[in-house]
């Protein structure tokens, strides 16, 4: 009697395996076999126990000898298993599918959460973590397979987002937040790369523009990549169509900043029957004041509302922001005053120094600090003098901390305070961008080149952010960052139990108290063992002399 395994590949690339408890017997001159039991759906540790018992069936007491049992440290399992379970809970595993391509895509997402880097680093990470055992990957892969998988992600992005949206939503949202950011590129050959308004402060580098659509909870539901010179409002129409046709939402309100939702975008929303919440610029506020639609007295710490022709204006003054702006002006004035004193000292010590040169330097610094409207430079003999235009200063500070939110939502749908709060929630999208770009997920710098690879890379980062967001919310109560929690989980390794002449199995030891606390906040419980086969090995293929385009 023995345990037999049979494997065969399907047309879609997935490998199926059946496990049977089988017996051989002699029928005349022929050796035949029959299946005693189907073990395919049994627990891996039960199958390993059966194999171990059959190996020593003639003397089970031999199992008691420690010399027959070898224990060795296996791969790290804590982090990859935890992140995988969170991905499963969020519906990411189901959205990507269980085929080989979906498993590779899921590993790219998990690798981005655990340790950021290139596709090659994701391959090396899988050699240190029990990725194949946890995800059930039964084929080897290398970085070229992961690059090809980015193309698969790009081609299936719409259906992945639809499945994830349907899986996570009990009912369709009525509120969407949308914002864009830019991310600089290393190199010149990216298909989306172009010179534009660089939010990263990386002068001389091409960039791409990334749009992120979030639901009312601040969770990303879709992302899109645009050329680096695309203006913010030009990306908006695609999101309106996506909310209606892509996700099938009928009652929708879009929340965007003052640079995103303008008159053209309001018309797009109106055609779809959607609403908007946005803000207006300082010049537009001045226009409303001059038209006597609003008065300065209406700006206060509590919200106030004014209506005109079906459009609602929600007004508020933030006293903290007003104090910050006043302090900023005072700091700038003090800096310029110090510069003036230094320049005057230099003119005193160097009789041949030109007064006009020092004056130009001082005026240039004032213009750079954008305080030239109320701070002027005068000369007196060989000295520079500063004067403050008090009326101009009062005009410049009149709207400190003041802002106006604009919406076409009826009062029955949202109160003034609700409109104000929803616009402030736009900060959740900005937080998502910070996490994706510069903090834990490190979407930038981007090293891929093709359209498909760039879209696939950005989608991977978005899905990874969903997992990181869930981890952050759970571990906040422990005062543990996501980075600290993952480092702690990576210390938990599996133990390979092997009997001489027999099979082996992967056991998970009892975790440390800190690790148990991390798992408890996520409501997760580690299994005692993991499925283990020798084929769960990540291979490194030999690269050609000239590498394929990224």
Write a brief structural summary.
By secondary structure, the chain is of the alpha+beta class.
Average residue pLDDT: 85
Major sheet: arrangement of strands: 7-6-5-8-9-14-11-10
Shape: elongated
Q: Please report the number of helical segments.
A: 19
Structural class: alpha+beta
Give the amount of beta strand, in percent: 15-25%
Distance between the termini: 52 Å
Q: Sheet bearing the most strands, described? A: 8 strands, mixed
How many β-strands, per DSSP?
A: 17
- Fraction of residues in H or I helices: 40-55%
Radius of gyration over C-alpha positions, nearest whole angstrom: 32 Å
Unreliable parts: 542-550
Describe what you observe in this structure.
There is one protein chain. This protein has 550 residues and is an alpha+beta fold. It is built from 19 helices and 17 strands. The protein has helices at residues 44-55, 78-90, 92-96, 100-114, 119-128, 131-135, 143-155, 157-168, 236-246, 263-272, 282-290, 319-349, 355-368, 390-397, 416-424, 427-437, 451-475, 482-490, 513-521, and strands spanning 2-9, 15-27, 30-38, 69-76, 175-184, 207-214, 220-227, 253-255, 275-279, 304-308, 311-317, 375-380, 383-388, 402-407, 493-499, 504-507, 529-530. β10 and β11 (311-317) form a beta hairpin. The chain is elongated and about 120 Å long. The two termini are 52 Å apart.
């Amino acid at each position: 009697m023995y345990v037999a395994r049979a494997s065969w590949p399907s047309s879609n690339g997935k490998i199926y395996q059946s496990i049977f408890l089988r017996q051989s017997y002699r029928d005349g001159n022929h050796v035949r076999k029959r299946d005693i039991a189907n073990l395919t759906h049994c627990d891996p540790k039960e199958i390993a126990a059966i194999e171990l018992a059959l190996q020593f069936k003639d003397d089970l007491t031999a199992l008691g000898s420690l010399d027959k049992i070898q224990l060795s440290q296996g791969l790290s399992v804590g982090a990859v298993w935890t992140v995988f379970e969170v991905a499963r809970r969020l519906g990411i595993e189901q959205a990507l599918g269980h085929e080989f391509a979906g498993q590779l895509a899921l590993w790219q997402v998990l690798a981005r959460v655990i340790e950021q880097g290139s596709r090659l680093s994701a391959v090396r990470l899988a050699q240190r973590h029990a990725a194949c055992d946890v995800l059930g990957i039964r084929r080897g892969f290398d970085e070229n397979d992961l690059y090809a998988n980015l193309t698969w992600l790009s081609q299936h992005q719409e259906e992945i987002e639809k499945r994830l949206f349907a899986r996570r939503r009990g009912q369709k949202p009525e509120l969407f937040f949308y914002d864009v950011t830019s991310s600089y590129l290393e190199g010149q050959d990216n298909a989306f790369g172009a010179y534009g308004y660089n939010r990263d402060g990386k002068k001389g580098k091409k960039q791409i523009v990334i749009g992120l659509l979030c639901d009312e909870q601040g969770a990303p539901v879709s992302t899109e990549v645009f050329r680096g010179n695309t203006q913010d409002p030009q990306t908006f129409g695609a999101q309106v169509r996506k909310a209606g046709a892509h996700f099938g939402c009928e009652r929708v309100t879009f929340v965007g900043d003052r640079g995103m939702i303008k008159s053209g975008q309001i018309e797009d929303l109106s055609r779809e029957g959607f609403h908007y919440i946005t803000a207006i610029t300082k010049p537009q506020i001045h226009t409303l004041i001059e038209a006597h639609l609003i008065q300065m007295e209406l700006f206060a710490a509590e919200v106030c509302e004014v209506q005109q022709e079906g459009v609602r204006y929600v007004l508020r003054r933030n006293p903290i922001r007003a104090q910050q702006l006043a302090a900023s002006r005072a700091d700038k004035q003090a800096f310029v005053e110090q510069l003036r004193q230094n320049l005057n000292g230099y003119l005193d010590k160097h009789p041949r120094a030109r007064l006009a040169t020092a004056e130009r330097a001082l005026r240039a610094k004032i213009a750079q600090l954008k305080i030239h409207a109320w701070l002027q430079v005068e000369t007196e003999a060989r000295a520079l003098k500063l004067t403050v235009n008090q009326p101009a200063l009062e005009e410049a500070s009149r709207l400190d901390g003041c802002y106006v939110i604009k919406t076409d939502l009826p009062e029955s749908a949202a109160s003034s305070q609700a409109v104000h709060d929803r616009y402030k929630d736009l900060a959740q999208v900005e937080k998502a961008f910070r996490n994706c770009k510069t903090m834990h997920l490190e979407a930038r710098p981007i090293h891929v080149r093709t359209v498909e690879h760039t879209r696939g890379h950005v989608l991977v980062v978005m899905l990874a952010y969903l997992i990181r967001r869930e981890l952050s919310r759970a571990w906040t109560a422990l005062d543990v960052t996501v980075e600290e929690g993952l480092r702690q989980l990576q210390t938990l390794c599996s133990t390979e139990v092997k009997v001489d002449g027999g099979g082996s199995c992967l056991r998970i030891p009892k975790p440390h108290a800190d690790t148990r606390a991390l798992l408890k906040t996520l409501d997760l419980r580690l299994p005692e063992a993991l499925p283990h086969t020798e084929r769960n090995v990540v291979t490194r293929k030999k690269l050609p002399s000239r590498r394929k385009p990224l």
